Amino acid sequence: MYRVKFWKAVASGNDFIIIDKDMHQKVIRGLGYRKLALMLCKRRFGIGADGLLITRVYGEGEWGMRIFNSDGSEAQMCGNGIRCLALWASLRSKVKEIRIRTRSGLVYAQVRTKGRVKIKMPQAKNMQLHIPLKIGKEEIEGNYVEVGVPHTVIFRKKLTDIDLQKLGKAVRFHQHFRPEGTNVDFVKVLDKRSLEIRTYERGVEAETFSCGTGSVASALLAFRLSLVKEKEIDLRTQGGKVKVYLDEKGEETYLEGEARIVYEGEGEI
User: Fold this and answer.
1) DSSP count for the chain of H helices, then E strands
2) How many domains in the chain?
3) What would the pLDDT profile of 8-22 be if each residue is shown by its tens digit?
């Protein structure tokens, strides 16, 4: 039996459990990261969350973060998770400019008023446009980019008529994206600076209320395809609104939105 101290955090409906690695060396050695994530993230049987954030402090204003999905797999980075961790770190240290080490590199975060956090995203790479994807008897068009993690964005006129679990899973495991697979974002263009998005998230293997990297990928691809004209893009998710900022060349991207620490607690596993 291990005792765990944790914090529960949420960003735009995407929820996470935060634990301090230095406080939990024994449980990590005993269970391992994968099993710990499976046990803590399982809804109705654990604390319940989309992911587990394991952090440690490296110096003033600098933390490390490893993120494990609810299925126990590890993600390279997570936009909403970083917003949650940056807020948590700022509340503990009173520092507003936070640096977070991730598997995708160093991410810079700025904690603003009312729990809003703005982060600079990793450089986008491996962009592929107009990919024909055969799904059963249907062919759909996907657009791919890596923003720390892989995303395939599918633009549609309506988002309410999608069997998102079925179609999202089919694209996520499509042979074109093997072996790692892809996150899948279904996007509706609302106007020249606004998008609506629904995401099937790899590692959760279901739709999540929002996805930070998915929002960035969708905004970047919409801009490259001239579906939006502005460089400040509002995205409507099921968990609330976020904003993506693009630089003049549409290469550097920033994600901003609200994060909250919902509660903290201790438990035995």
Assistant:
1) 5, 18
2) 2
3) 999 999 999 999 999
- Same domain for 210 and 145? yes
Q: Which of 211, 219, 242, 259 is catalytic?
A: 211
Active site residue 84: no
Q: What is the pLDDT of residue 247?
A: 87
* Contact assessment for residue 20 and residue 4, using Cβ atoms and an 8 Å cutoff: no
The verdict on 169 and 234 lying in the same domain is yes
Mean pLDDT of the chain: 96
Instruction: Note if 211 is an active site residue.
Output: yes
* The pLDDT of residue 248: 73
pLDDT tens-digit readout, 139-155: 999 999 999 999 999 99
Catalytic residue among 78, 85, 222, 244: 78
Q: Which domain holds residue 140?
A: 125-251
Amino acid, single-letter form, for residue 123: Q
Query: Are 139 and 47 in a shared domain?
Result: no
Would the pTM of this model clear 0.90, i.e. be above it?
A: yes
CATH number, domain of 133, equals 3.10.310.10
113 and 196 co-located in one domain: no
Q: Which residue's structure tokens are 């035995």?
A: 268
Helix 79-93, helix 212-224: angle, nearest 10: 130
